[in-house]
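Batch job 17 of 40 flagged for manual review because the log was empty.
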Amino acid sequence: MNPRERARSVALAISLCCASTVALPASVVAGDMSHHQIHIEGSGARTVILESGLGDTLDIWKDIQPRIASRCTRTLSYTRAGYLGSDPASGPRDSATIVTELREELDRRNIRPPYVLVGHSLGGLYMQYFARNFPSEVTGLLLVDSTHWDQHMIVNTQANQRYSAQREVTLFMPWIMRRELTDSTQAGEQVHDSPPGADDVRTIVLSSTVAPKSGTPDTQAHAMQLQDEIAADFPGARHVFVTGAGHYIQRDQPDVVINAARELAGCGESQVRANSHTRDQRPPLPASP
């Protein structure tokens, strides 16, 4: 092992030691190395891929990933480049780049289609791009309060408060988050310019019903409209508003996300309707302050 390889191995060991979730081993093509921190659980003909939102790592899925996998399917969560545990990011952080990096990682590890894509927030935008551009590889798509292609997530360099409503960003936000926000407009345009959603990609769109504290009836109505438009981009999509769930539906109502993912993975019918409204049974808007 030359000095450069030894240094990289040490750095990788340190990052895995310090990360909140340790990646499980998976086969990698001989002579290559993983570029992303990966956690794999379960086995099956399909692979459920869990894509995190802005600022999150694979750790966001740690509580529900084992339950999706249990006696059902192989599941894979990973941390995008630029975040702790994965390689540094280079170049644009748009949909095309991130999906290319993910597909290359899957190829390195010999993890072949079909895939069930699960994307939360900004990760949902990336998974929309994946599903619309590579439909032959995708058998299911689950969007968890996904970002809309035209949402315009703005970097406000003057803001000094916590990231809120996808429009404000603290001055201390890590570079990778700033870059993903900056490139989110281009990422959205790439989704919008993609081929239409395929008829044979089963799609479930889960939307939150608990508005941010700063939300108003107008902003909540607009958010619902954006979620409706996302669902309309995928033929036959099932759109549900999840009762009692804020933006992190996988935390607030984990069973809804678990059941939907397992359904798309072929492990029985989902029970998402038990804690949800259909698009024609909308939850009430928040009262004006």
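Reviewer: the log was empty due to a logging misconfiguration, but the result itself is present. The domain at 24-278 is CATH 3.40.50.1820 (Rossmann fold). Unflagging and moving on to job 18.
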